[in-house]
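Design a sequence for this backbone.
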């Protein structure tokens, strides 16, 4: 916590979201948390490319490297980002770095200052999120190398769901499994937390009501929120459960997996690839695409069936979460599909007419936040999520609190 303030530069927060072959980043002004730039390096280890955009979507940088010059690991990619910030954003000073971490295990229900012990503990969660956690930690290690003693804060996608009751947090397995960590952790928590705080701040008339947020992107889940707290969610122990996703299966009878193992001799890797990479919209559309835009544009029967399956499962889960809350006042659409697909939102809402949703068709076609009519018993909203801003807020709050403590001490 010894960062020396340079009064000639704008104090800023850097947010890092490190995936398997990409690092997304965003820089926020620490004084008002306005976004300064956002960018990403994709294709780390192969044909990497680098793109930076300003908040008005102007491209500030776009590079595609030949293979021999491309960054080969997260550390090299992060150094490129930092060099770019030094040269092209030399008027900023990074005060703290916020990291998205997919899994906080049973312990972490709020953001935490990263140190060696925290990293060690997060490494023990690799088995809980093998496709995400190692890359998140690679990003943290690379950032620590590059930024020295600048405080680094971990923000967890599972944290928001830690308010779930035992009943909504467990499976009906022997209790010892719950104790050892086999729980319904839930994911997309930073998105749900952002949406929740957005409603509280900008749409307070709807805050605190029995709400289902549908985060519909490539990864997709839904979350029941009541009185501003998470009650239940569709993803569980892993980000595979719940509704079908781009290439993830969503809920499958575990008996299917036993069948694959016992009668077809599939091993764990084969089943993992099937469930994470070959299923969902991609699998149902006969391999056509995991991308909703492509499916909507297709006339193939398989594409239409994939969309119907997706829509029906979103409807089912909205009502299942309503049953958990014993009521439903607000449905909120977010994520790439939820924010942008007029068709999917329209289909989902039409299928909920019988429980009291009245769709405002014109609002659904435009940019409006409120998609239901004034007489609708259930309010439907569309809100763009901003997980990076949520991480920036947490990072600002925790690093400021830590600084205050160290000054007081
Ligand atoms: P991720 O989980 O990778 O963050 P996103 O939230 O970016 O995913 O959502 C990606 C999904 O959103 C893709 O299926 C994409 O086709 C879909 N999408 C984006 N824009 C539209 C649109 N205008 N209409 C339909 N689907 C869209």
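Sequence:
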């Amino acid at each position: 916590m010894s960062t020396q303030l340079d009064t000639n530069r704008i104090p800023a927060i850097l947010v890092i979201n490190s995936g398997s072959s990409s690092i997304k980043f965003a820089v926020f002004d620490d004084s008002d948390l306005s976004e300064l730039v956002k960018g990403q390096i994709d294709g780390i280890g192969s044909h990497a490319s680098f793109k930076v955009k300003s908040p008005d979507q102007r491209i500030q940088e776009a590079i595609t490297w030949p293979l021999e010059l491309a960054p080969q690991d997260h550390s090299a990619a992060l150094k490129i980002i930092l060099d770019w910030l030094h040269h092209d954003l030399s008027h900023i000073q990074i005060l703290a770095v916020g990291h998205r971490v997919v899994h906080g295990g049973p312990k972490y229900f709020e953001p935490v200052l990263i140190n060696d012990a925290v990293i060690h503990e997060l490494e023990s969660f690799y088995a809980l999120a093998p496709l995400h956690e190692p890359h998140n930690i690679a990003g943290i290690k690379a950032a620590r190398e590059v930024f020295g003693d600048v405080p680094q804060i971990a923000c967890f996608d599972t944290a928001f769901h830690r308010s779930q009751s035992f009943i909504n947090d467990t499976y009906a397995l022997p209790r010892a499994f719950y104790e050892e960590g086999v729980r319904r952790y839930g994911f997309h928590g930073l998105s749900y937390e952002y949406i929740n705080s957005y409603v509280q701040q900008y749409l307070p008339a709807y805050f605190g009501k029995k709400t289902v947020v549908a985060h519909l992107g490539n990864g997709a889940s839904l979350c029941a929120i009541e009185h501003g707290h998470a009650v239940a969610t569709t993803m569980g122990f892993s980000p595979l459960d719940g509704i079908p996703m781009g290439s993830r299966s969503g809920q499958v009878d575990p008996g299917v997996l036993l069948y694959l193992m016992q009668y077809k001799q599939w091993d764990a890797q084969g089943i993992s690839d099937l469930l994470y990479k070959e299923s969902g919209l991609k699998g149902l559309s006969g391999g056509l695409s995991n991308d909703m835009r492509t499916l909507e544009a297709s006339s193939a029967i398989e594409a239409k069936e994939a969309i119907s399956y997706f829509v029906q499962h979103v409807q089912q889960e909205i009502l299942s979460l309503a049953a958990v809350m014993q009521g439903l006042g607000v449905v909120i659409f977010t994520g790439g599909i939820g924010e942008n697909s007029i068709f999917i939102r329209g289909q989902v809402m039409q299928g909920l007419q019988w429980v009291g949703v009245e769709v405002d068709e014109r609002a659904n076609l435009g940019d409006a936040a409120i998609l239901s009519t004034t007489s609708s018993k259930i309010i439907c909203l569309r809100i763009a999520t901003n997980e990076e801003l949520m991480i920036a807020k947490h990072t600002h709050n925790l690093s400021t609190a830590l600084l205050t403590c160290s000054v007081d001490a």
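Residues 204-387 form a domain with the Nucleotidyltransferase; domain 5 fold (CATH 3.30.420.40).
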